[in-house]
Amino acid sequence: MTMLRLPRVKDAPAAHPARRMRIVATGMLVAMAAVFAIARATAHLHPAIGFVQAFAEAAMVGGLADWFAVTALFRHPLGLPIPHTAIIPRNKDRIGDTLAAFLRDNFLTPAVVARRMRHMDVASAAGRFLASPSGGDGRLREGASRLAADILEALDQERLGGMVKGAIGQRLRALNLAPLIGQAIEAAMRDGRHGPVLDGIIHWADRTLEANEHLIRAMVHERAGKVLRWTGLDENLANAILSGLRKMLAEMAADPEHSLRLKAEEGMAKLAFDLQFDLEMQAKVAGIRDEILDNPAMQRWIEGMWEQARAGLLRAARDPGRAMAGRLGEAVRALGATLQQEARLRVVINRFARRAAVGAAASYGDAIVRLVSDTVRGWDAGTVTSRLEHAVGRDLQYIRINGTLVGGLVGLVIHLIETLT
Prior knowledge:
The chain is an all-alpha fold and 421 residues long. Helices cover 83% and strands 0% of the residues.
């Protein structure tokens, strides 16, 4: 596992307040030492100077004690290896383990996550986010869009395109089309929607017959005997055949109960059944499907579809406002409004979010805890000390200042009691 290593910060802006307070606390301690020295040297001049000396002496003791306590948290005072000092550097690993255990016990257990998620309305929050594209979350959306565009452009186009096209091809090859086609034909026949299809086939046959009338006449002429050709009966025979075919097609178009039309419907019903339940027919359809997918024209079509999708994603990512202004934006806003208005949908989505969060905590909680612990262990002691001191150093310097003042007041009270007694 790769350890995160924080850089040393020498002049970070966050460190300035702590440094200023350290100067103030140290200056107060030095000032108290100077006042004590002056008061001790001039104590014989006036009895009131004794009070000043007592205050400065006790303030010095209090300031020194708190300086030692604060310094001992982060380093050895004056560089001396005094026992139980430099507490944070020496216990860095234990601090990381304790922090990790705290996270696990209080935040990453399935019971805690479930209890927290029970009071969260994820669906409504998502609905408000989607319904107000120009709200206060604009910078978040723009940042996410820029990140998505950068990631999409940074990916290897050839490799990514090959992966996408391969995935599309695999999904299409895994699709069993025969039962779907059979169910569609069966549903169309059940609802009577196959009639226009048959009418179209009949009209197509009539137009085809008319366009190829000369071919039929030529076939009859070639196959007729010399006697028929000599007497001209071949022409009468061709006319009879064409007339009979036209009459049959006209009757099929006009009569929904025509015998040939019923035969065609019977054939369609059998085809629908075979497509759904005949393994041999399904294998034939699968073979046709694979031949179509292997065709170079189909491969080019899939490639063009991916390129168009990629270009559309990039345009939408680079200009989210323009993308949200069209039909896509209307659909997203409509989805947001639906999420806010439909109580049942919110319940379903919130339940799904809760289960997903609980599942993530159960599956990855220990991994997150180990990541925190191992990350802290990977930091060097100087980095941990510097970061913690910069984070809480200002308050710790207030402890030194308060210790100096409180110590001085206590010394003043003690000296007053001694004077009165």
